[in-house]
Predict the structure.
Amino acid sequence: MLIRKPADIRPSEITSETNYLNRRDFLRAGAIAGGSMIAGAAGAAVIPDTRQALLSGVKKSVFSTDEEANSYEDITTYNNFYEFGTGKSDPYRNAQDFKPRPWSIEVSGHAEKTGIFDFEDFIKPFDLEERIYRMRCVEAWSMVIPWVGISLADVIKHLQPTSKAKFIAFETLNDAEQMPGLRRRSLDWPYREGLTMAEATNPLPILAVGIYGKTIPNQNGAPIRLVVPWKYGFKGIKSIVKINFTSSRPRTSWNMAAPNEYGFYANVNPNVSHPRWSQARERRIGSGIFADKQETLMFNGYGEQVADLYKGLDLRRNY
Ligand SMILES: Nc1nc2c(c(=O)[nH]1)N[C@H]1C(S)=C(S)[C@@H](COP(=O)(O)O)O[C@H]1N2
Ligand SMILES: [Mo]
């Protein structure tokens, strides 16, 4: 078994999205992330979830990539979900007792259909689709994940936003009883994200409710989370309890934490470096610690579907 000392791990491999954390917190997060990376790469004993229920009637999608998907174990044991801790294996370890049912979602703001919906009723009108997408984290690692989800565009059409709705905003559950990470102010809770209505009604974004044909594990954002494959992973807000249609741009968690590092748009862009590391290349999780990093693609390779959304926008300034 090959174990590298934390000092031999390059900063890009261990840096969580956390430079504003105090140095002690930062080092702690780094040590945990480094440890979990070694465990993952060496295949140490990690027991994948086996409690997820099979989803039925899942349709295939033309938007899926045919790249090889990451293993269920990679996808469910190497996570970012700061409500359960900042280390990569914290969500897997600390989210096992989380209760994703019963669950309700509150829809508010500029839409015809607002109110509080039970999760099962909320997703019932829509087709379940498998969408195998690349996911590129702003920390310069990536995976390929076979999500099962519903089209966000379909959901929005159903909720009938009015012409005043220019943005859609999401919030994660904020329950310190169940989410030990909330006791630390690693972010200004609740976790918040948002999209322009033009982005949100593009065919690519989904609300994911499953992975590998089964219900989504807690650590990946049960029971429902956003996936926007051409943007950095932090836009993919987990365990959503609130959806709000707004006329002004919503405040979003990583942008609030470090606006010079994490923009509202957060489109994957190999030409715009993070202030502390390059975004030109990425490490595909599971490729082995000796594998070369691969090139990061503009819009994470989804430019054909989304580049038109940003015509006339300076992507260097609007990062
Ligand atoms: N509520 C919430 N959502 C979140 C996060 C988080 O910390 N809290 N982390 C984000 C980040 S940085 C990434 S890369 C993805 C990771 O998704 P995964 O763990 O399912 O791969 O979730 C995003 N959604
Ligand atoms: Mo991320």
